[in-house]
Amino acid sequence: MAATDPRVDAYIAKSADFARPILEHLRAVAHAADKDIEETIKWGMPCFTVDGGIVCNMAAFKQHCAFNLWHGKQVLGESADDAMGQFGRIQKKADLPPKKELVTLLKQAVRLRREGTAAPRKRAAKPEAPVPDDLAAALKLKKHAKARATFEGFPPGQRREYIEWITEAKREATREKRLATTLEWLAEGKQRNWKYM
Q: Is the dihedral of CA 114, 43, 119, 98 positive or negative?
């Protein structure tokens, strides 16, 4: 096995009894996949990297472990579940594919990392923020036609910034002041954080 990181040793040692053999197995698999794989700790869990890029990571919880391939969708296909790892809740070594199969999967992940392939990012689209009644009523007024045109022309994220700014006000007076400022800035065609642009 290549050089190990003492922080990973400590992480494994402090893990629950059921988790230690699973983590040791996953560690051995990672090192079997590539002689140059390096260990580190990122986000409080052991990660295995090649050329500075993450290939996989593992974690132990109270009743299960997780193992995540950074390029999981490319290696295992679109159906791969990757909430915290593509292999589900691992409670014993038998919950994992055979070592030879895991090594093959990791070799593919290492190859993708070396080729510079970016891991696909999954961004959950936020639903459209509901426009509060007071803002909606003000935007309907004829005197706020410019503000309405600007607001309707903004993408959802920019509309959300104004909506959240108004609705997060704790006092009614603050909310009313923010509503008036919103209408003024919108009439001028300004985004909510225009001062920082």
A: positive
Number of domains in the chain: 2
Tokens of 192: 């909510």
> Where does the pLDDT of residue 86 fall: very low under 50, low under 70, confident under 90, or very high at 90 and above?
confident
* 4 Cβ contact list (under 8 Å, min separation 6): 27, 39
Does the reported pTM lie above 0.70? no
pLDDT above 70 covers a percentage of the chain that reads 89
CATH of the domain at 37: 3.90.1150.200
- Cα 175 to chain centroid distance, Å, stands at 32
In which residue are the tokens 């008036």 written? Answer: 180
Shared domain for 109 and 155, answered yes or no, is: no
Q: How many residues does the chain have?
A: 197
One-letter identity of residue 115: E
